Amino acid sequence: MTRAREAEHRGTEIRFDGVSHSYGDRTVLADIDLVLSERRIGIIGVNGGGKSTLARMINGLVVPSSGTVTVDGLDTRRKGSQVRRRVGFCFTDPDTQIVMPTVAEDVDFSLRRSGLSREDRRRRVEQVLATYNLADHADHPCHLLSGGQKQLLALAAVLVIEPSVIVADEPTTLLDLRNRALVAETFAGLPQQLVVVTHDLDLVADFDRVLVVDGGRVVIDDAPAAALSGYRRIALHSGSGPGPGTGAGSDQET
Questions:
Q1: Which among 28, 106, 137, 241 is placed 20 to 30 Å from 20, CA to CA?
Q2: At what angle are helices 147-159 and 177-189 packed, to 10 degrees?
């Protein structure tokens, strides 16, 4: 790969230095040292391995018990608000981040502090709702949406603010095949750096880099083909991992 081509694949520098984390007396991450700068990064692993905790540290939702996490030099512990302006986060359960009564209002809420005029906000909301096949639901109550539609709405509300980095925790878990394909297509075209925690191996098969997290450690860090092959061996040994293309399951606790 030429230097110019390599530069195209580089984005924000996300750095983990000596990071460990515990919930009570249970260690969920241990001695993590990473530098993430590729445009599309997948994080996979069996349930309880620590992958969601790792992802949530990127925008300061979880602060490490020891060590530091920085985003372009900003310490997530000390500069959390600045980090969160750069790093959007999409949760597994969309109900945790849908806050307004109707679909359009919920996406618009994300733009309230953007400085955009009301008309510019309206246009941007219409554009992102059309992208996610939610335009016909703009005035619908959010609580009447299906689980899959709620997931798409949550993703739309993150993308509408155009952060530098998007972290998505199991973004396809609640989606049918059609909407999974829509999310995958959208991810492929995003200019932002993308970090995705998933059990859907097809989703990360063409990413730039894939991490396998198991037992609180990054046990594989490689190109997708090698990482997925190694993960399948780990999953087969543990008896708890899904097969390729499986979107079931989540890792919300760890």
A1: 241
A2: 10
Establish how many alpha carbons lie within 13 A of residue 124's alpha carbon, considering only the half-sphere containing its beta carbon. 23
Instruction: Evaluate whether the domain defined by 10-238 bears CATH number 3.40.50.300.
Output: yes
How far apart are the C-alpha atoms of 214 and 51, rounded to whole Å?
8
* Strands 10-23 and 26-38, sheet pairing: antiparallel
Q: Does the pLDDT value for residue 93 go beyond 90?
A: no
pLDDT in tens, 133-183: 899 999 999 999 988 899 889 989 998 998 999 999 998 887 888 888 888
| CB 141 within 8 Å of CB 106 | no
Q: Is 67 exposed, middle or buried (0-12, 13-18, 19+ CB in 10 A)?
A: middle
Phi, psi of 196 (to 5 degrees): -125, 125
Q: Where are the domains of the chain?
A: 10-238
